[in-house]
Amino acid sequence: MTPGGSDSFYGAIPVFRGFERLMEPSLYSPLPDDWTVGVADIVNSTQAIAAKRYKAVNMAGAAVIAAVTNALEGREFPFVFGGDGASFAVAPDDLPLARQALAATATWVKEDLGLQMRIALVPLSAIRGLGLDVRVARFGPSPNLSYAMFSGGGLAFAEAAMKRGEFAVTPAAPGSHPDLSGLSCRFEEIPTSHGLILSVLVVPARAADPAAFRKVIEDVLKAVHRSPQAGRPVPADGPALRWPPAGLEYEARAWRGGSLAKRRALALARTLFVYAVMRFGLKIGGFVPKLYLQQVVENSDFRKYDDGLRMVIDCTEELAVALTQSLAAAAAEGIVRYGLHRQDAAMMTCFTHKAARSDHVHFIDGARGGYASAATALKAM
Question: Is 0.90 topped by the overall pTM?
Fold first, then answer.
């Protein structure tokens, strides 16, 4: 732990269990005044998705988190994956490293993924100066790790400011490559088992009553939690793994060192080794394939809160219709704005800092547009 670093604050926040408690204000702690919020997203992600570049878009968003995590040498900091982007917060001591990682990621995304990434760093003082806040909670989906949840309106402001060109960070020089060690997308798409994969995005309407908004979110969570027709999009035995994996090209591009041809060859060899280990359940050192797959399921990040509810659930058409009707009624009352997107599968992008550790993270999105398409529907309201 670095004195004054990001994990000296974030690591002290108690972890809460039970996602239905999400909207309890007492769970959230205000960020220290001298912290900075980082935001990133893909420009024209709608067009990229129309071109069926879902995996590239998700890889770009997850790359932000991987790059900053590696730059901070694994120290804990709050972050959230948004599908076509990511948001995070860091202490002053960690800001220079986070800035370098963010700038290098934007260059890598442009050069290796052919996408344009907006990036910005917003001082918390600028957010609080507008009467907004950034408060953080830690939700533990399993005993293995926790994910950050954000409230207070500050993250939403930072993202909107970034899209206006404010607080922009200049991308790094051409050829810059962040450390993306541990970032991969080896698992296959995860088909629905209930009928459809529903990407859900619900944010407060302008001037919405906070108590009314909280009730809508809690009602949505209860409806999903109590329904036998909905659940985690990742099957109990984990997603399918094949070789060569569909994400092989992206993994090769994420590695540093040597020509792309060399990295592709190494990726082929490495993924074949991993496939054999997983396929035959081979224990290597402290790595136990069966336990790892169990943790993949438990650690999947399929629901979160960052000034709005984000979920990817496997559900029936009937439940999707019921959720649509309840959210439409809340929107008509001026309480929420929402976006829903239906698809036939989910996808997973993984960040495994160390294979033998249990805190590997697995970002879930819809496989046919996901959060980015849900956000398009929200913007149309």
Answer: yes
